[in-house]
Design brief:
single chain; about 140 residues; mainly alpha
Length: about 140
């Protein structure tokens, strides 16, 4: 929590229910969601109009629906990337370079980096005028 206290069991269960990950949202004896592809994720047209675009309850269930209904992999050899796609282009080049390095018996870029192993995501509340880089610096280091 924001104040550093742990979540109660009730708060955890409420969050799990709201996101669609709670065990009571699974078909008993399985890891399959009750809201699934066979029943169209129990989409509610009313919910689509008033709550969210998908009409599916629970962000986890929405994620599952998107993953399961994506269709065939797109043939990217035919796409035309532009200047605004620089991040995509760079990432693909790095992945191809990593593949080549592994095929040649080496380690891909970043695999042996030690400095990044101590960096962690963090969050905190701070005054609007705070220098956020300085204020959060101590929260970004792994604490074992």
């Amino acid at each position: 929590m924001v104040d550093g206290t742990s979540l109660s069991q009730e708060e955890i269960e409420l969050e799990e229910r709201m996101t669609g990950r709670h065990p009571d949202q699974l078909i008993p004896g399985t890891f399959k969601l009750k809201r699934n592809r066979e029943n169209d994720y129990m989409i509610s047209r009313e919910r689509q109009k008033s709550v969210n675009y998908t009409g599916i309850e629970g962000v986890n269930t929405q994620d599952v629906a998107l993953q399961e209904t994506m269709g065939p992999i797109y043939d990217r050899t035919q796409e035309h990337l532009g200047a605004s796609d620089l991040a995509v282009i760079t990432t693909r080049r790095l992945l191809l370079q990593a593949i080549k390095e592994v095929q040649e018996g080496g380690d891909p870029i970043g695999a042996m980096a030690t400095s990044s192993h101590n960096v962690r995501a963090g969050e905190m509340l701070m005054p609007e005028d705070a220098n956020w880089q300085e204020a959060i610096k101590g929260e970004l280091v792994a604490k074992w």
